Amino acid sequence: MSKNIKICLNCGKKLERNKYYCSHKCRAEYIQNMKTCVICGKKFPASPSSGKLTCSKECERIERANNGKVGASSKSLLLAQEAAEKSPNSGRFETNAIAKSWIIQSPEGKTYEINNLMLWAREHEELLPGTPLQFVGGIRDIKRTFLGKRKRGSFQYKGWTLLSWSEENKARVNL
User: Fold this and answer.
1) CB contact at 8 A, 105 and 113
2) DSSP single-letter state for residue 157
3) Greatest CA span in the chain, whole angstroms?
4) Using an 8 Å Cβ cutoff, are 104 and 162 in contact?
């Protein structure tokens, strides 16, 4: 027997040929990065760059509840949604940040100057052929035809015509 008896770094068995591990399995186990679960303390395999903090779905659910990722976030989301609906930049207002200005003409020849097409369509549904969403889609299709983005487009939607539009919302000038 030799004086320098080596043992496996992973399991502690005596080594015969290999310098550090008794088998490929022991080597794989030894070099695998292990993290400790923040809930139960159990060790689990995870890469060092992984953001994983828990060993199982059950522990993950507990951890998310503890950090307010469940329940509290839904309350915050509702508050944010209420604030967005009241904001002149994002709610159903003429001053909505993505709304555009339009000038359209009805089949009867009446001209309408509009700063938020969807809002106007919802408020004047009785004038429209179909739903507000269908009407807005039809007017936008006319715009795409003018821009050359539709090969076989139309220049009117059920008698309604688009006279002009502006990418800038004219109602936002004073904001």
Assistant:
1) no
2) B
3) 108
4) yes
Q: Residues 139, 102: contact at Cβ < 8 Å?
A: yes
Is the CB of residue 137 less than 8 Å from the CB of residue 128? no
The pLDDT tens digits along the chain (175 residues) read 456 778 888 888 888 766 888 888 888 888 888 899 999 999 998 888 888 889 999 999 888 887 766 556 677 778 888 888 787 787 777 887 788 999 999 999 999 999 999 999 999 999 999 999 999 999 999 999 988 888 788 889 999 999 999 888 787 776 5
Instruction: For the chain, give the number of residues.
Output: 175
Got the DSSP string for 76-137?
A: HHHHHHHHHHH-TTTSSSTT-TT--EEEEE-TTS-EEEES-HHHHHHHTGGGSSS-HHHHHH
Total Cβ atoms within 10 A of residue 87? 13
pTM check: above 0.85 = no
CA 31 to CA 35: how far, in whole Å? 13
Q: How many CB atoms neighbour CB 128 within 10 A? A: 19
Positive or negative: CA dihedral 7, 13, 16, 20: negative
